[in-house]
């Protein structure tokens, strides 16, 4: 079972705890599955987006779920790679090596 969870490319650090709380509320009490994280919006993703995705991944793990980033932009892939998080945040075929 997959659940889509959008994250705006212009998300700020102050919004990350609320995103994680929203995701936790969505997952609570549901059988494990996969969360598809879609980074959307016209803005170029910044470091806060990478932090958001990383923290959302930790949230999914806490509920026994997995997180996959759907069609990450080249900019997002580059940022994730520069931070050394490719393997942790991107599935195979998206630049990851799981």
Give the topology, please.
Blueprint: E1 2-8, H1 16-27, E2 34-40, H2 47-62, E3 66-70, H3 74-82, H4 86-89
Parallel strand pairs: 1-2, 2-3
Can you offer a commentary on this structure?
This is STAS domain-containing protein. The protein is α/β, with parallel strands linked by helices. The protein has a single domain (2-89), classed as Transcription Regulator spoIIAA, CATH 3.30.750. The chain contains 4 helices and 3 strands. It has helices at 16-27, 47-62, 74-82, 86-89; strands at 2-8, 34-40, 66-70. A 3-stranded parallel β-sheet has the order 1-2-3, covered by helices on one side. Strand 2, helix 2 (47-62) and strand 3 (66-70) form a beta-alpha-beta unit. Helix 1 (16-27) packs parallel to helix 2. The longest helix is centred in the middle third of the chain and has 16 residues, at 47-62. The protein is globular and about 35 Å long. The relative contact order is 0.20. The mean pLDDT is 91.
Any descriptors?
98 residues, Transcription Regulator spoIIAA, three-stranded parallel beta sheet, 4 helices, 42% helix
The profile of the biggest β sheet is: 3 strands, parallel
CATH architecture: 2-Layer Sandwich
Average pLDDT works out at 91
- Class derived from helix and strand content: alpha/beta
In terms of DSSP E residues, the strand content is 15-25%
Order of helices and strands: EHEHEHH
Gross geometry: globular
Fold-level CATH name: Transcription Regulator spoIIAA
Q: Unreliable runs, pLDDT <50, ≥5 residues?
A: none
Number of helices, where a helix is a run of at least 4 consecutive DSSP H or I residues: 4
Strand order of the largest sheet: 1-2-3
What's the β-strand tally? 3
Instruction: Report the end-to-end length measured between terminal Cα atoms.
Output: 20 Å
CATH top level assignment: Alpha Beta
């Amino acid at each position: 079972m997959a659940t889509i969870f959008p994250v705006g490319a212009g998300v700020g650090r102050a919004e990350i705890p609320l995103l994680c709380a929203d995701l936790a509320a969505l997952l609570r009490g549901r059988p494990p599955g996969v969360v598809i994280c879609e980074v959307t919006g016209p803005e170029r993703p910044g470091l806060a987006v990478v932090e958001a995705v990383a923290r959302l991944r930790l949230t999914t793990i806490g509920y026994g779920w997995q997180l996959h980033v759907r069609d990450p932009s080249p900019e997002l892939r580059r940022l994730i790679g520069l931070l050394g998080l490719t393997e942790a945040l991107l599935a195979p075929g998206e630049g990851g090596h799981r």
